[in-house]
Amino acid sequence: MAYNLLKGKKGIIFGALDEKSIAWKVAKIAKEEGAEFVLTNAPLAMRMGEINKLAEECNAEVIPADATSVEDLENLFTKAQEVLGGKIDFVLHSIGMSPNIRKGKSYGDLNYDWFLKTLDVSALSFHKVMQVAEKQDAINDWGSIVALSYIAAQRVFPDYTDMSQAKAVLESIARNYGYRYGKAKNVRVNTISQSPTKTTAGTGVGGFDVFYDYADKMSPLGNASAEDCANYCITLFSDLTRMVTMQNLMHDGGFSSMGISEDIINMIQPK
């Protein structure tokens, strides 16, 4: 059921790869809620994914951009405003990648050049997006910018390795740029700390199935799905959350407030 929450709003959605991705589901629901937007991803990710299929379904234009490239981002924001016929009201940053995780490197054996790449792609790109947008004055007053995070920014999940630091940096950037953008343009900036989600990127983390099941058993509501997260993103893009900014919002079925659950006790208790 649609509520017209984004009627008349224009946006940019980063990171839609395939039907499993949160950004894909955000795009579908944003369209249902009345938004117009452009889709963007790095050229390599676009070749691997199905973004053109999504663009056709949403009647949206695709503008390729490497989010680590300021030049690409400048082109993206310029063209997006031309395509949409005005400034942007919302941005979704759904970008994360660790070469160390992809190559199976343990935390005690990280390749530091790859670590820097992890930080650039997964965190610094968020700052670059907002810096370019601010310099172009591309975001309308009371706009909303959201990035996707994970609780490994605050807690230890061994197989998440350097992505843990990337998410911590991402959340810090959201707070600091949220202050700056709020004072300048009333633009709000938030991160959503989502449950482990069976996306293409998520399932690439070692031991994913184990901590997915663990989180599901720990959370009184179970794990939040990709579609649940997309719905939450839509509320943050809407005018219903105009005074919410600089927050890391937990969207995890209650996981972050739990110490232990009966399901976990029953799993480890000797029979």
UniProtKB/TrEMBL annotation:
Pfam families noted in UniProt: adh_short_C2
Catalytic residues (UniProt): 150, 160
Cross-referenced SUPFAM superfamilies: NAD(P)-binding Rossmann-fold domains
Gene Ontology BP terms: fatty acid biosynthetic process
Ranges in a coiled coil: none
Record-listed NAD(+) binding positions: 15, 21-22, 95, 167
Taxonomic lineage: Bacteria, Pseudomonadati, Bacteroidota, Cytophagia, Cytophagales
Family as reported in the entry's similarity comment: Belongs to the short-chain dehydrogenases/reductases (SDR) family. FabI subfamily.
Keywords, sorted A to Z: Fatty acid biosynthesis, Fatty acid metabolism, Lipid biosynthesis, Lipid metabolism, NAD, Oxidoreductase
Name of this protein: Enoyl-[acyl-carrier-protein] reductase [NADH]
Organism the protein comes from: Pontibacter korlensis
GO MF, any single term: enoyl-[acyl-carrier-protein] reductase (NADH) activity
